[in-house]
Amino acid sequence: MRVYVGYVFCSRIFFGVVLIMTHVVTENCIKCKYTDCVDVCPVDCFLEGPNFLVIDPDECIDCAVCIPECPANAIFAEEDVPEDQVHFIELNAELTPQFTPITRTREPLPDAEEWNGVEGKLQYLEK
Ligand code: F3S
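A: This is the predicted complex of the input protein with FE3-S4 cluster.
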């Protein structure tokens, strides 16, 4: 979550605080990496690792268009991340500087269909 504090000038001066949440890629992306999410992102905030994507929390504008695009249902708004996936909020931020920007959808990983829905995939995350 980012917090912007600033002044808005109208007929009067207002002091405003805007909270911007991010979206988060979670475990079911691992070993699938469908990348359907990438083409629809208006701000190119996805980054790619060997078998997983993350969302840059400082670039995401919280538009949510990527959520229904993911065949693995791996993307959640920060406030909606399932309890057992909350550690992925920090993981997306941690891996953002390590991973490479990706701006175009590509072929999914070869075994994506076999891995879609398999639990406990964090152990297979490649950084
Ligand atoms: Fe991963 Fe879903 Fe995007 S599997 S690469 S978050 S479309």
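Residues 25, 29, 32-37, 53, 69-70, 72, 74-75 surround FE3-S4 cluster (CB under 6 Å). The helical segments are 36-40, 87-95, 112-115.
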